[in-house]
Amino acid sequence: MNDFDWKNLIDPLFYIHFDVNGIKLGIYIVLFIVFAETGLFAGFFLPGDSLLFLAGIYSRELIENILFIDNDFINVVLLSTLVALSGILGNIVGYWFGSKSGYYLYNKEDSFWFKKKYLVQSKDFFEKYGGKAIIFARFLPILRTFAPIVAGIVSMDKQKFMFYNVLSSFIWSFTLIFAGHYLYGFLLENYRIDLKEHIELIVLILVAITVLPVIYKFSKKSKVQE
C-alpha cells in the first residue's frame, strides 16, 4: 500500500498484488471487483476482462491467499469458480436493484458513478438480443454493468435470467482465466516469452478488444439517430 498512485485504480496488477501489512488480499479484491462491476454498478472504470486474464497468470499466487494447492489445474478451476460465483451474485443484486428502482434510474441525473446514457444503450442492446444479451454483455465493459439492471427493469423472467446469469458468468470467468493461465505457460515454454514482462501491452490489447467495438457500435448508432 506504500507509494499509492491514483493510476493504480486502473492497473489490474495493483489488485492482484494488493496487501495490507504483508497480508495478501488479492483474491478478495479480485472477487469484490467482479461483484462490484454489476452489483455496485462501477464497471465502467474497473479493469474486468484484463483483471481476469492476468488473474489466470497469477492464479497460484491468488489462491495461496486462502490455501495452498500444489496443482495448477485445480488452482485455475477453483479461481474460475470463485470468480463465476461472484459474478452471479453481482448480477442478482443488479437485477434486484433494476426491478426495484427502474423509474428512479431513468430520472436520475448523471454523476461520476452513473451515466444514464449507458443505461439507455444497455436497454437497446438487451431488447435486440434478449436473454443472450446477458451472455454477450459479460464480455463487454459498461454493458456488463447495466445488463442485469435492465433485465430487472423490464421484469425478465427470474428463472430465465438465472439460467443466462449462471451460464454467462461461468463462460466469462473460465474463458478469460484459463486463457491467461495456459497462454502464459504455452508462450513461456515454447517461445521463452514471459507475459509477466509485457503486462502493460496485454492490458492495452484487451482494453482495445473489448472497449473499441462498443465505442464504435454506439458512436455509429448516435450518428444514425442524428
UniProtKB/TrEMBL annotation:
Transmembrane residue ranges: 27-55, 76-97, 133-154, 166-187, 199-216
Residue span(s) of domain VTT: 47-181
Localization (cell): Cell membrane
Superkingdom of source: Bacteria
UniProt-listed InterPro entries: DedA-like (IPR032818), VTT_dom (IPR032816)
One of the record's GO cellular component terms: plasma membrane
Keywords assigned by UniProt, alphabetized: Cell membrane, Membrane, Transmembrane, Transmembrane helix
Protein's UniProt keywords contain Membrane: yes
Pfam families recorded: VTT_dom (PF09335)
Topology within the bilayer: Multi-pass membrane protein
Family, per entry: Belongs to the DedA family.
Name of the protein this chain belongs to: Membrane-associated protein
Species per Swiss-Prot/TrEMBL record: Flavobacterium xueshanense
Lineage, highest ranks first: Bacteria, Pseudomonadati, Bacteroidota, Flavobacteriia, Flavobacteriales
